[in-house]
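Replying to the earlier thread about multi-chain prediction with a worked example.

Input:
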Amino acid sequence: MKMIGKQHLASVLLCLQLYLPIGLAMNGDLLPLIINTWNFSMATSQTWQPLDAGAPAIDIVVQGCSACEELQCDGSVGYGNHPDDIGETTLDAMVMDGKTMQIGAVGDLRRVKDAISVARAVMNFSKHTLLVGESATKFAVAIGFKEESLSTNKSVEAFNEWKKNNCQPNFWKNVWPDPSKSCGPYKPSPGGVKMTPPTANQDISQENHDTIGMIAIDRMNNVAAGVSTNGLNHKVHGRVGDSPIPGAGGYADNDVGGAAATGDGDIMMRFLPSFFVVEQMRMGINPDDACTNAIKRIVRHYPDFSGAVVAATINGTYGAACHNANFVYNIQNPSMPQMMTVPVTCIS
Ligand code: GLY
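Result:
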């Protein structure tokens, strides 16, 4: 039998790389992997080395989101920004382990800074999935987290400015006095509930929806998703966004991969985009197309919607899609000498 020469073997391998799905051909270069929404570079750079050295994916997403919480990434993660309509900063976070399908999440968490760590504590120290509001705070304090104000001079000033500006913008509708002109307290409008065509939240901008969503795949081929945010500026007190809702803010399944979302959470949670992306990837659809399909489904109903989804398969392929956003994501795997920030052309 004729022996295959080294050069011939190399070209056969190159052909395989070109024609096989990328994740199958070059798994060694593609894993482990970390991907996160936006250019929250500290979250990626602080976690790459431990992930590469073998740390579990679940630890990595908690560590990355915690870094962002401490740094108050873009004012949209962690304490001290985006006061709600009574002036309080409240936090939403979730962690999901794709190996065990366990989730811990907190919504409307008050007076505790470490939202993603409290979410993990919900997973580790209770049989529940999601705790909210004052009760989530009580749980966190019982577990040993510090209770402290999440307000800063900046958030107090932002709230006072907003009050001076007749509480504009806000998220009320069908109430009196007219919420587009006046502050509350509001009562149901004497004109009743108007069934206007559905619209997305108008007060969405790069500074106002930069949830951190992270997917990590570790050397044991376990995937985890982590999400953390302080939600929308001037949201109605008590509002919980998409971030702590399983399948909306994030989802992870070791059989497939993971996905995480950022954007107008009130709209996104109606479509469970992270779950939808993972289910499409399960059927063999590549991450870019799966994310595009999830965003398109939302846009069909809400043409002015702003948001994005990132995803990675358990083989290390990855992708993203967005609408109405200047969206970038950060990614690192062993084939990259350093973290890459990838701009995404949004679907129109
Ligand atoms: N996606 C973050 C939020 O709407 O709260």
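Confidence is low (pLDDT under 50) at residues 1-26.

Feel free to reuse this layout for your own posts.
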